[in-house]
Amino acid sequence: MKRVLTAFAAAAMAAAPALAQDNFPPAPPVGTPKPFKLPASDTYTLANGMQVTLVPWGIAPKTVVALRVAAGSLNDGDQTWISALTGEMMKEGAGGKSSGDIATAAASMGGDLNVVPTTFGTTIVMNVLSEHAGQAVALVSDVAQRPDFPSGELARVKANLDRQLSVALSSPGPRANVALARAYYGADNPYGRTIPTQAQLDSYTIEQVKAFHAANFGAKRAHLYVAGRFDAAAVKAAIEKSFGGWAAGPAPLDLPPHPRAGPQLILVDRPGAPQSTIRIAFPAGLAGSQGDIPLRVSNALLGGSFSSRITKNIREDKGYTYSPGSSIGFNPYNALWTFQADVTSAHTGDSLKEVFGEIRKLQGSAPDNEEAAGMRTYMAGIFVFQNSTAPALVGTLATRDMLGLPADWLDNYVPAVLAVTPQQMSDTAKATLPLDKATIVVVGDLKTVEPQLKALPELANVPAQTVTVP
Asked: Smaller CB count within 10 Å for the chain: N or C?
């Protein structure tokens, strides 16, 4: 019986390709991308300068309440990660409530509360059942304005951050990111100071945490977003009650970076590593500038999507890497196009050669209409999909406002993407990705990797700088 079953299984497997080919019709054509229309919203400013945006939207009985305060790592000065420590401590108690009380209150509303410090700000966010929207506003207000900063919790919170720092620096990816930030912005620039030493982090006191909060959190730096289903009148009343008395505080920090132009080749030794971690970076145009949308589409074609040219080349065809990719990081003052990949050590030079070749290919000739249309459709479709939930929409709105983009930018995004021509993709690659101006970081086994890099014509005249990232 066993032999019969085995034979039957083998026959079925052999027949599967034929059955699949005979029984399945060709895939239907891709339809026209749907436009994105920002739901009707209400934006206003409280007397103390705090901005509010209300977006009644959706059918699920959920509401997102997100307060973004322009107080992040750029405000750290030379106290690197003091903003992160402050954000973590804000969750430990506020308005007389302990961390357990805060968690219980959030859970009773059908959600939780999180504090997320980033480079440009700190976000306090809840996603709750709609009937509790006003209560969520009040709880977010307590955490933002009246953190208790219990000193007894400081050692534990710092220990958690210590572990996060240690884990990050044990991986080549974060080390490459640290090296790139230092090389591009300068180690003494707030944009380049991305990690503290463990001793520095351990030295911070509760007084320093309180001082950071007092100096950086205020209504003039705050924007509250409420999206989903909610009673607008009740939420407005809750906002006025909870935030109307918040002190205005300082205006948002104005701190443009002063990046260093390439070419630069930065090496970090990782003896015996079986892989090399690569970063290639070029300055890009500001968000909302004339070349912004064409660069986004060009990036998707080149390395920013799973079907991109670089992915097909060094992942599918060559097998040098598993998950390469490129992206564009925007901030209010500049933007950075970055390629990243973990490649086999023996093929580090080969991988860079192929990436350089794909950049040159796009610079030298426009893609055909079918490939260009595919990338436009992908970019338009993924934008609509990514903004299909209230939390995602709030994130997009906060990014729009942080970058200073016009109110109709989101509505215009899909038409702008669909209007990008193949020639614009090629021209954008020429303008944005000059190979003789790249900043390149390689973390790997330098005795294996460095000879490969020196053999590349693009790097022949670029002096390599070996640096240490703890």
From this structure: N
